[in-house]
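Encode chain A's predicted structure.
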Amino acid sequence: MKTDNQEKKNIIEKQNLSYRSRVKKNKKNIFRSVIKEIKITSKKIYWKNKFLILYYYKSLIFFISKNKIIKSKISILIPTRERVLKFERFINSIIKNTYLIDRCEFLVLVDSDDPEKDAYIKFINSLKYQKLDIKVFHENIQTHAKRNNFLATKSSGEILFPANDDMIFVTKDWDHLLDIEFSKNLKKEPLCVWVNSGNKYPYLFCHFPIINSEWYRRLGYVGCELFNFWYLDTWICDLAKRSNKVIYSQKIKFKEFNAQANTEEFDNTYLRNIADNKMEKDIEIWENSLSKRINEANKLKYII
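Encoded structure for chain A:
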């Protein structure tokens, strides 16, 4: 299916308008705008200070304790569909920037009815000389969370990284830096590491949050399956903040090629993801999920 640039822009604008109309609760006026800005500024200041305190506290304890940096196995979960070229870009960025790539396992999910299935297999077979640990699964699983959860059941790493096929790794030796951050954590304690994903407000939200196996063990999932497509990262980030089981690593940088910001990235998979008002439906599910999020955060905070 080919879509010209103007049609792409129209689809994206329609999606943005739908999102804004759904989250807009009150009519705008100067007073409400000022109050809103004060709340946003206060929130940014609060979370920035809290993240800095958490980071330096964990770093200080690690330094005083003279603990060693633990090299952990990293399970990279990567569901992908009709994006073999983006998948190649993703894999090549890992090969270029990973310090110890032999301790990474790649768990790839390609739909059994994917029209690019053969192209995926051909590319993955071409990587054999790289000696990458790649396991490919062919299943038709509907939602993004369920796809990641399926891959997580096949994982064996101490670190679980739910990645996207429209991102690349930017930081050289990112895995070594990740080892340092997770090594600051107490044994048998859940932890989520936020990375620098180019977010405007990095202390409020993170694309591609990375969790350890204890986090996964306590919750029993990577992504919450309440949603139609969105909110996997948002859910993880919300629980991380509520439980204080989080550390932000500014040095580890990833880049996302977002279709909303770049029409060149617009594809059939993006169309599938936004079809049937998935975003609008997921916003409503999110708004009604507060009590569950509190309960799930408590599972991370306390041994129940």
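The first helix runs from residue 5 to 23.
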